[in-house]
Amino acid sequence: MNKKTLGKRSVESLTSDLTEEQRKQLCGLLGNVELTLLYKASVHGYQASAFHQRCDHQGPTLLVAYNHSGYIFGGYTSVDYTQCCQQITDKEAFLFSFQDKEPFCIKVKSGHYARYDDAGGPNFGQQLCFCYNNQPVVYHQGGINAFVFYSDTLYGNDTDLSECEVYKVKHILQVMEKPWRNVLWTAEYLMGLIRNHKPLMTSVSRVRILMIGPVGAGKSSFFNSINSIFMGRITSKAMSGSAGTSLTTQFRTYPVKDGREGKPLPFALCDTMGLEEQTGPPSKSVPIF
């Protein structure tokens, strides 16, 4: 263990016992994640208090235990440790063990609690308890079947631990190196798509877009913005503003032209009276088209 000093605070630099390949394999069980070592029993002690001091309120965590027979095993929980003294439901929880150089995964059974969150050491299903009684020991409690496993397969029946580590698991957003398709997201390109749009049905000459919403939602302002874009200047054809009641008092259809002298575009915006708690547009005010 190394120590780095930042100001007046001493910060521990912990070294993981996992190889780089083992770390990658465990990350493969979790998805696109980043592991940060929070707790190392050989450094901080096997006491439950030391574990909670380092691992409480850290979000999802991965526990990795090592025994003298060379087994590497442990478990994952997606729920915070908080010492709340309650049973924890966690559908994402699982146990794992390396076998033939690759980890296998044992998920929590449906309808069972993943662990009990108290001031004791970490446990999974109250079935597999790590750092049991503040000692470098793993304890298998019989009669509980939240996880189905055989102790000889999971850890070779060797309950003496040589190390126990807990990692914070941070899920990170995967960014593609290259976009999956090239799209020209320019104003001219998008406006061109609108100008050249043709309804699927030949009997429909243009698309009518009905705008419905509460008073002050900005329906009329939305039309004015669209109209201004295609006219190439600021317009306020529809009455808009802020008031206690709707400024739009009747259903109106607004065609949009492509420029001052341009032809009508293949759509029209239909403005309606704003919805209020007690009043709104009469059902007959909106025509069926």
From TrEMBL:
Transmembrane segments: none annotated. PROSITE patterns: TLDC. One of its GO terms (biological process) is immune response. Residues 12-170 form the TLDc domain. It comes from the Eukaryota. CDD domains: Ras_like_GTPase (cd00882). InterPro entries: P-loop_NTPase, TLDc_dom. SMART domains: TLDc. Belongs to the IFI44 family. This is Interferon-induced protein 44-like.
